[in-house]
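Example S7 (structure tokens).
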């Protein structure tokens, strides 16, 4: 197998972690950069209660998204994955594991992700 079959050296999978105290709760973020996309885990406890995936569509400007794992009535992971795909033009996997007690919480979480994307664009 040569390098063109497995990707360039710069295409290696990378991991990036950061945390933030949001509304009196420590929220952890875990990013795994992949070739052509990334996986984002958001939570305060080590659980994987849902998983959504989103990708660009050739049929419209809005990215396609679906929930792979979890409660279909919780649209937060789908919506977040879709907005991140629209922003980055990449395939995005999202696992959002925070309780939906306050709608401002998810907005603050998303703003923290966007801030991290501006500071460390190479990690996404």
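Recovered sequence:
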């Amino acid at each position: 197998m040569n390098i063109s079959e497995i990707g360039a050296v710069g295409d290696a999978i990378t991991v990036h972690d950061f945390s933030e105290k949001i509304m009196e709760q420590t929220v952890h973020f875990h990013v795994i950069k992949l070739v052509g996309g990334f996986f984002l885990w958001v939570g305060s406890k080590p659980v994987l209660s849902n998983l959504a995936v989103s990708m660009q569509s050739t049929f419209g400007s809005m990215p396609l998204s679906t929930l792979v794992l979890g409660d279909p009535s919780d649209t937060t992971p789908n919506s977040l994955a879709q907005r991140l795909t629209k922003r980055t033009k990449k395939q995005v996997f999202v696992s959002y594991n925070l309780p939906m007690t306050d709608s401002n919480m998810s907005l603050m979480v998303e703003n923290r992700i966007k801030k991290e994307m501006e500071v460390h664009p190479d990690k996404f």
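Notes on this example. DSSP finds three helices and six strands in the chain.
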